[in-house]
Write a structure and sequence with these properties.
With about 160 residues, the protein is mainly beta. The protein has one domain. About 0% of the residues lie in helices and about 55% in strands. Strands 1, 3, 4, 6, 7, 9, 12, 13, 15, 16 and 18 form an eleven-stranded parallel beta sheet that branches. Strands 2, 5, 8, 10, 11, 14 and 17 form a seven-stranded parallel beta sheet that branches. This is Right handed beta helix domain-containing protein. It comes from Streblomastix strix.
Length: about 160
């Protein structure tokens, strides 16, 4: 049986107060999240050798109310995130990050994104890279600058933006 290449596109939706995530891909499936507002954790899990494309989305945690696992997890393939916001996440511990890039990940691009009002605990980060990635690009454009800010970080051992 041949594996079929497929694309799942989720456009202009709002996910409200959900902790279970919105999509998980295995096999050869690309995911496109476009112009979405997604509340909660473990939003997208990409175990596919294809691309997770995030365009003009807003990922919102639950602030101080409870810890969430991560917004996006990429264990295979690569992520391209453009002009998106990751806010109000509360992370504490290993693998508790806004975006986790691990496994067989070859390259990733994060451009003109904002990581704001996130609360990072011990061993947590905005972007975690634990694979032998050949290229990761984190950049801004002349029009829209990437923004990184933490919430209530007073201990230098707690939280990093990139690890």
């Amino acid at each position: 049986m041949d594996v079929v290449d497929s694309v799942v596109q989720i456009r202009n939706i709002e996910m409200i107060k959900w902790k279970g995530g919105i999509i998980k891909s295995d096999g050869k499936t690309s995911i496109i999240l476009n112009d979405c507002i997604l509340n909660g954790g473990c939003t997208a899990v990409c175990n596919s050798p294809e691309k997770l494309d995030v365009l003009y989305c807003e990922f919102i945690g639950n602030g101080d109310n409870n810890f969430i696992e991560r917004f996006n997890s990429i264990t295979h393939g690569f992520i391209e995130a453009f002009n998106s916001k990751f806010t109000q996440g509360s992370f504490n511990g290993q693998e508790k990050r806004c975006n986790v890039i691990s496994g067989e990940n070859t390259q990733s691009i994060i451009e003109s994104c904002q990581f704001r009002e996130n609360k990072f605990g011990l061993n947590s980060t905005a972007i975690s890279i634990s694979s032998q990635i050949s290229l990761i690009t984190i950049r801004s454009t002349a029009i829209l600058r990437s923004k990184l800010s933490g919430q209530g970080i007073v201990d230098a051992r707690k939280g990093h933006f990139f690890r």
